Structure prediction request, 176 residues.
Amino acid sequence: MQDVKLSNYSHFYASDDLKEELAKKISEDELFLNVAYTDYGGDFFEKVLIEYFKENDPEHILYESTIYCGQNAVIFGDFIEEFCAVTDNYLLGWDDLEEFYTNLEYKQTVEAFECFIEDSLVFEDYQFNKEKVMNWLMEQKYGQFSMYPNMLDFCSSDLTEELEAENLITKKGVKN
Prediction:
């Protein structure tokens, strides 16, 4: 992450409202972090960082929603230099950020697998025990796919084939 000064707008992308709000909170020479993500840019860490500060240190973050299911945020305060030093070698090294990351990753994985079950298996008329399928997915596939800010990247047809091979799902009307 790169420190950005408020006076350097060429590297700071935000709405005028967010910039004005930040100018009321910090002086021109104070350092701050600008992080953002959408469905098409940014990464899961940036989403985690925004959510972490919104939940754990709301007085040091300003944020706004963006198009394509994203958020843009500015994190500021006298701890920013220490935060950058601590996270320079290990992004999750700040306080309990690693635990927060893991919890959000788990939650988003569960949501993605639940959507897969509803959107693919139910829609395609498979018979299955949802609890068994979810347990298998979490035990066998958790952590194997790329995590993006708003999705888990996996191939539904490949997962469906694996579930069929494991005899966890069957097409309605097809006998094993």
